[in-house]
Amino acid sequence: MHIGVDLDNTILDATSAHLHYYNIASGLSLTPDDVNDFYIYRLYGWDKAEMDVVYSQYGHDIHWNSSPLPMAVEILQQLFNQHQISIITARPLLYREVTIEWLKLHKINYHNIELIENKLQVCMNSKVDVLIDDGPHYAEEFALVNKPVILYDQPYNLSVSNDFVYRASNWIEVKKHIDFLESKLHRLDITVPKLDK
Ligand SMILES: [Mg+2]
């Protein structure tokens, strides 16, 4: 299978890194328990322009100092051995280098990487079979075109539910969903009726 994988709050804990630097910038002291919005900067009362100022100052450090989520590295290695892995992140292109260096540091193997906001478009173009992501808007978008998303549980995506969403609260569950989708693909291959019969 061709698997698309998001980075922030899917492979790594972006919430803690963002809060750490946003707290420095704001003087506030928010914790992960305060996070109920995909756009963490909104918890600080910032608009997009204010966030851009903070992000341009701390973005590199935020991305460099994020930690992988439990078992993400190990399971990704197993998936890499069997599947095509594309890292698909909405991070700005400016952060391509620190992103690639971070992946290298944590020994995460992949076949391809895209920094792009329109994940649906890139997944259609490169025939991605399933996206692993935490973004509620991606789960909604992909369902409209019948594409499965393994939605990594985060406080801000718990209300999303549809026939194409497979929920995972950890990477062991991600792997189980991948194995299920893979077996489903094979079953479909076998049960396709032959035209000459
Ligand atoms: Mg994400």
Automatic annotation (TrEMBL):
Transmembrane segments: none annotated. Its EC number is 3.1.3.-. The keyword Hydrolase applies. Keywords: Hydrolase. It comes from the Bacteria. It is an enzyme of class 3 (hydrolase). Belongs to the 5'(3')-deoxyribonucleotidase family. This is Nucleotidase. It comes from Paenibacillus eucommiae.
